[in-house]
Amino acid sequence: MNIDFKELWSARELLYFFVWRDIKVRYKQTAIGAAWAVIQPFMTMIVFSLFFGKLAKMDSHGLPYPVFYYSALLPWTYFAGALQHATSVVVDQQHVITKVYFPRLVLPLSAVVSGLFDFAISFLVFVGIMVWYQIKPGPALLLFPLFLLLAVLTALGVGLWLSALNAIYRDVRYVVPFLVQFWLFASPVIYPSSLVPDRWRWLYGLNPMAGVIEGFRWSLTGHGQPPTLLLAASLGAVLLLVVGGILFFQRMEGTIADVV
Amino acid sequence: MTDTVIRAENLSKRYKIGERQNNVTLRDVIANFVSAPARLFRARKPQSANGDANHIWAVKDVSFEIRRGEVVGIIGRNGAGKSTLLKILARVTKPTTGYADVRGRMGSLLEVGTGFHPELTGRENTYLNGAILGMSKKEVTRKFDEIVAFAEIEKFIDTPVKHYSSGMYLRLAFAVAAHLETEILLVDEVLAVGDQRFQDKCLKKIGEVRQHGRTVLFVSHSMMAIRRLCTRVLVVEHGQVSHDCDPMDAIAGYVTEDVGRSYSAQASAETPTITSATVHVDDGSLLLSVQFRSPFPLVPPVLGFVMYDPMGTPVFGTNTRIDPPHPEPQPSAAGHIEVLIPTTHFRPHCYLFSLWLGDHYSDYCSVQNALQVELHDDTSSKLPPHVIGSLRVPVKWRYRPAVDLPQPHGGS
Q1: Can you give the residue range of the structural domain that contains B287?
Q2: Which of residues 220-259 of B touch A (CB under 8 A)?
Q3: Of A44, A108, B170, B227, which residue is the least packed, with the fewest Cβ within 10 Å?
Q4: Nearest to A169 among B15, B24, B119 (CB)
Q5: What is the pLDDT at residue B411?
Q6: Which residues of chain A from 193 to 252 reach within 8 Å of chain B, CB to CB?
Q7: How far is B219 from chain A (nearest CA, A)?
Q8: Inter-chain touch A96–B117, beta carbons under 8 Å
Q9: CB-based contact B178:B202 (threshold 8 Å)
């Protein structure tokens, strides 16, 4: 794997402009604008709190249901959105790729970064919810940026694979919503990972979103134990995904240019 | 040697025909795998060296070197491989074999307005397009006023581009592209847009680029633009570089590669056709002979011709309606027409003939660039025909010194 870091660094302004364009265009075209970034996780939180919380009485480790769910929906919504965007970005930008050269990695990178804008807005709402329920985070809050970075890397890792695949097999983008749906149930969004028996916890942790979500919950709310085993497995999985993703993407770049 | 900025070595690009059909879906791949898993593991049939029916070589074995400061034109018929060659150099697509070594920052203008988004304003698109072309934000800010002035859209710079007319859109797109200051520029037929005045402005701007010592590779169909700007021309035919020479020779070669002193064609059962034509050079004149055949009698048969210089500029033309022959041609369905053209007033170089056949009311058959002939004589002017034209008109000069002004050196 040889990433030309110098080249990527010199393309940083282009990355900025792609992200800036995505955000600007998205908000120019919607009527509700920034509210959309919040509506999705917020409404989901309400539905989850009602049905899985109040009615099914799932374990929430002592947290009020809205806090329990929103703290997971925060990274989850980002991940799902970034994944869908990254999958289609190369094909959507074909009119640019076929005319100008720039490091192609910039495209999935821009997809993964532009999702952070919606994430930031959603995060503000989360702060509001925390204040409402008077939950104070502990010193673990300092580790929160690391978990955010892990979320970004997860989205990038998976996104690289899907991005390259979608350029070659155009129906991949239709598989993604199903994939995300399935993945949601495999991640500790609706239920805590403590539901998984101890001896299988490491296997469960191979789902990098497990580490991300438990990390978010722990660092933001200060509740529960640090998810160390889970995290170790998740970190390993993410590293493999990202490195493999970059290799695969670069290997496919030649084909993509001709097929896109 | 050290001044070489682009070196291409054995560049080739093979495309699979049908590759762009996009019928390949994951679903198909999985279905194929399930129904015939063995197929995936069977050895591929060996590819023949020339490509089989499923492949075409868009570019085959191209090598050349370009030195700093050269403005190289690339011409060729549609489908010859010019754009593919440029795409390889621009790193937009990977060559199947060979490599291209480029020294210095390269800007590629394979299209104007790359990345323009209709929802964004002109200002926003300028920055976006500039970034895509490789200009930094600071650079775009520095040149912003110049760009807007070049495009002549000061009033509309802050309206979304979707409200622009196509002319405004193109002017802005070209304005951004024209201010790209890389050492090497690749330009692909982007001048084929806009009105005449704008095209002139663009040509002038590219000319300025040349003055600054930058290297330009320029694909165009406009012989006028090539003539004006280029110091060297590569002619691309069927994926290969067939000529590498100075613009005049290349253009002449390109236009007239398969045209000679005689022409022939099959008679058609439906329309009158010119079946053969020849041109003979005599001392001081040309004899053009044409034979025609028609399914019905032409009343009367009318033949016309136009002589062109190698640049495609018409020099002289006439037909039997303008200069009726004596005696008048009888209505006929087949015949032989000759015309004697005195050539004392034509400068010596290569001329092309286009022919027309018709009757009193209509034109039936026209053949562009049917014949080519080279005129020679002893006197040769140092000024080429594209500067002083193809005609030699016997003028008379007269000179008189002015009487009331002091003459230099001992006049009276």
Answers
A1: 262-388
A2: none
A3: B227
A4: B24
A5: 47
A6: none
A7: 15
A8: no
A9: yes
Is B225 in the same domain as B309?
no
Q: Are residues B240 and B271 in the same domain?
A: no
Q: What six digits make up the tokens of B240? A: 């290969």
Neighbours of B388 (CB within 10 A): 12
B200 and B271 inside one domain: no
Q: CA dihedral defined by B42, B47, B53, B56, rounded to 10 degrees? A: 130
What residues in A contact B186, CB-CB < 8 Å?
none
**pLDDT per position as a tens digit, B24-34:** 677 777 776 67
B242 and B294 both lie in a single domain: no
| Interface check B186 vs A, CB under 8 A | no
Q: Are B216 and B234 in contact (CB under 8 A)?
A: no
Mean pLDDT of A231-244: 92
The whole-angstrom separation of Cα B326 and Cα B323 is 9
Please indicate, yes or no, whether residues B63 and B126 belong to a single structural domain of this protein: yes
**pLDDT tens per residue across span B350-405:** 888 999 999 888 888 888 888 888 887 666 666 666 678 888 888 999 998 888 77
How large is the ipTM?
Answer: 0.88
pLDDT at B159: 93
Last residue of one domain, picked from the residues B204, B232, B256:
B256
Query: Residue B175 is part of a domain; what is its CATH number?
Result: 3.40.50.300
Given CB atoms, is A32 within the 8 Å cutoff of chain B? no
Could you give the number of structural domains in chain B?
Answer: 2
The residue of A4, A30, A95, A100 whose CB has the most chain B CBs within 10 angstroms, and thus the best one to mutate to test that interface, is A100
